[in-house]
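Lab intake sheet, docking and co-folding queue.

SAMPLE TYPE: protein with bound small molecule
LIGAND NAME: zinc ion
LIGAND FORMAT: SMILES
REQUESTED OUTPUT: full 3D complex as structure tokens
PRIORITY: normal
SUBMITTED BY: R.K., bench team

The fields below were copied directly from the construct record.
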Amino acid sequence: MDITHFFTYVQQNLGSESQFIQISSTLIQINQVNFLIDTGLQGRTDIIYVLNKIRLSALDIHYVLNTHIHPDHYGGNRYFQNAEIYLSEEDYLFQRDFLHAIAQADLGQTEDAIKRFYPQFNPKQCLYFSRIAREMANLWENDGIGNAEQIHYIEEDWPFDFIEAMATPGHSFQHYCFKILAAKNPFLVTGDALSTKSAFQLNQLDFPYCYDAKAYLESQQQIGKFQGIIIPGHDYPFDTKTRQYIDNYTTEERSGVEFGDSET
Ligand SMILES: [Zn+2]
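RESULT FIELD (auto-filled):
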């Protein structure tokens, strides 16, 4: 089994400043079958470029798994036309219905629509989230997750015995972490249930816009018990024992850094 972690990058403008946000994707190769967990930002082909660097094309991916239906995690799904795609039906339906409601709301009603779907948000959070929600609603396409015949819902159908889908709600309505069991050293791909190493075992919110703060903290506790290598949604892989990034990641390498184990 080989496991490769990639970042794709998105530039975010915050007032006069701009910063790069790194987004994790994880490739698992086992017996010549290629699994890709999370596909980067919607509208960007970077994920194909990083795969090309290790001589894979989008069409070589057999399975796509999504941690959750936010546009920086499922965005490249439709490039993987040969893949069977596994994602949460609950998370998909929530995001679809939410963004339809935003698209249909008059501009002045955006915050009310947000409040209906995110009952825990205070007025300030609703106001701040409204611009992002509008942007997401503009980009939303019902088939952005892939073609209907490619889609499998994790809640109904999970055929992989060496990958455990762990329900970790809170960051989004439903969210899954993927625990890779066959590796000598187990790996946990956490998406945004744990977005960075600094949030590990911290038991604090690491995002201001959690769907459900209590559920998020419970999911964090579940992740906090894991021992092995964690691949966060927006950070380098790290070892839970040493709490250090694993060795290969000390360089400025921007994508395509590889590690693995050779058990299989
Ligand atoms: Zn994210």
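REVIEWER NOTE: Confidence is low (pLDDT under 50) at residues 249-264.
SIGN-OFF: pending second check by T.M.
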